[in-house]
Amino acid sequence: MIKNHTNHEKLLLTFFAVVALSFASNAQGWGPDNGTTQLSVGVGTSGWGVPVFADVQFGVSEFITVGPRASYSSKTYRSQGFKYNASVFTLAAVGNYHYSRHLNIPRELDLYGGLELGYAVWNNDWDDDFGPYYGETSTIYLGLRAGVKYFFNPNIAAMLEVGGGTGTSGALIGVTFGL
Length: 179
Fold this sequence. Notes:
Helix content: under 10%
Largest sheet: 8 strands, antiparallel, barrel
CATH topology: Porin
Low-confidence stretches: 18-29
Mean pLDDT: 84
Distance between the termini: 41 Å
Order of helices and strands: HEEEEEEEE
Strand content: over 45%
Number of domains: 1
Strand order of the largest sheet: 1-2-3-4-5-6-7-8
Oligomer: single chain
Shape: elongated
Structural class: mainly beta
CATH class: Mainly Beta
């Protein structure tokens, strides 16, 4: 069964417009600072397949970043003529407090924790001996997060993050670029 996902396309277009506009910002330094911008992309762990994500974080102070995050994952099961597809799309506002500067650790490490307030849409469809089915549900969620970034230089870092609010990702791993 084919479903029109125009609302999802609009959300993705809005997110990537924010990403494109962020390229006009200056970003220097090993971690966040007022006026910096960082783009992170990567993959995660989930019972709904392997989620891919992208986010943009804007430094609003020496310790605080805020910005949008989008993620998508899907999984397909097939067995003896039965086919089941499941997917989830999330769009969230993320706020993090970066506390490395309070600790006596190398400047390459950026430790942070924060909140995520988002909107998730789950889609399920299958086709079996009883015919096709399509279902969609959505929810607003709030989640906690904790993460670490290791900066190889002021503009490239590896990142690891745990938490979230939808149950779709237990951990995220990715790359962060200073823009």
